[in-house]
Amino acid sequence: MSNDEDRRMDDATTGEAVSFPFDRMAAQRFRETFPRARWSEEKKAWFVPGSTARRRIDRWLAREASRTEPFADERGRDAYNFEPILSPYLNVGDIGFWIRTPYSRTAVEELRQVPFARWESAKRAWLVPFSSYDELLRRWKTIEEAALRNEPDERRKRAAARKGTQEEADRRRRAAERRRHRLPVAGNDPPPLGRPVATNAYGIVLIVEVTGEIVDPEIAQEFYPYSKEAVWALWRSPTLDELVHTWPSRTRTGDDERSRGWWQPTLDELREARKSARSRERRLKQPDGS
Hints:
Blueprint (H helix, E strand, L loop, with lengths): L2 H11 L1 E4 L5 H10 L4 E3 L4 E5 L3 H15 L4 H11 L7 E3 L3 E4 L5 H8 L5 E3 L4 E5 L3 H17 L2 H11 L3 H14 L2 E4 L10 E4 L3 E12 L2 H7 L7 E6 L3 H5 L10 H6 L1 E2 L3 H19 L5
Antiparallel strand pairs: 1-3, 2-3, 4-5, 5-7, 6-7, 8-11, 9-10, 9-12, 10-11
């Protein structure tokens, strides 16, 4: 495959989603800046292809935030003064609200829906302009509750409460099963080797071997209830490069594909897997490996 083909594949399958309040002029400016962006009706958001999409989107959002009507920021400040968010997770800055929380997928998804909110990696915080305060306030209860659930002390309390319970025993068995890196697949229709596939149990994985060993029905019933007569396949997590060069399925996953244990991943599934792989590889490159 040529370098040009690699680049086209990369651009077609990597990128970031962005949503913003509808405004005809803003939409026109967006299309001029991102002529290859595509609208996703399912996510109600634009998808911008390319490995630098997040950085380009953040720059565009910052410019758009400065274009808001002259008194929008002032109204947002007044709204905050009238009904302030009093939380250790929020601080008021010169240009907006800085939000720092323990990592929570729920909190991140809520913040992404706030107009012109953007992640500032240098400060490890979300920046929300004053003009978006009403929407931030509307979503704050969900954001704060999710953050509180993910505080280290709260996580330790939940772990202590589970100690010695059936729930903890079940969690340990599931964790031990995952560490075996095995997956039941239909013996007459195994997944391709060396190519990322989507699975019911572990998301997108790369199958390295189909052993042919018959799956114990009791193990299947406990951990893989979707499976029928099956054999074991061994898997590993795919690399970011392998995910980038995986073509997405253009059709919806059917029941037959799910019952066999694997299917060709959709574009949405690949996007989520690439984000996780990118974060994982970034952590591994840090000096301390954390």
